[in-house]
Design brief:
By secondary structure, the chain is an alpha+beta fold. The protein is 37% helix and 27% strand. It has a 5-stranded antiparallel β-sheet with strand order 1-2-3-5-4, covered by helices on one side. A hairpin with a 2-residue loop joins strand 2 and strand 3. Helix 1 (17-32) runs antiparallel to helix 2. The radius of gyration is 15 Å and the shape is globular.
Amino acid sequence: MESKKINIIFEGNNIDRVLFLEHFRDKVLRFFGMEDGVRVYMFSKEMIKNIFDHAGGRGECTFEKSENFVLFEVKDYGEGKYDFQELKSRGTSKPESGNNFGVGLTSVESMNEMSGVEIKINTEKGFSYSGKFPLIY
């Protein structure tokens, strides 16, 4: 099977998180089709929400379908360096921005426990998630 690849860039011009996520979902469904598109969207939704909530809606994602799995990279254009464990430990506390910290990160990290999922999280400059996940569960 020939691989298929899509790159989506978020430029920070969305003011509403629901519209931001709908824009992402629509592109993924058009590219992958309904069945695989729903899986890709559900798998990556929390990472995409974090781009909106914590990086001003600025970031990008790349998905490449090959056989029965998807390679992915989701990254925000945040400037800071973060301590993943510290942010994750905040739980549901809300800093001055009003956005939850920690809950989404814990969800993303727990994806590693799913069968066949590999995910790496880099926090050197903003957040970057990369890895692969199966399309067959």
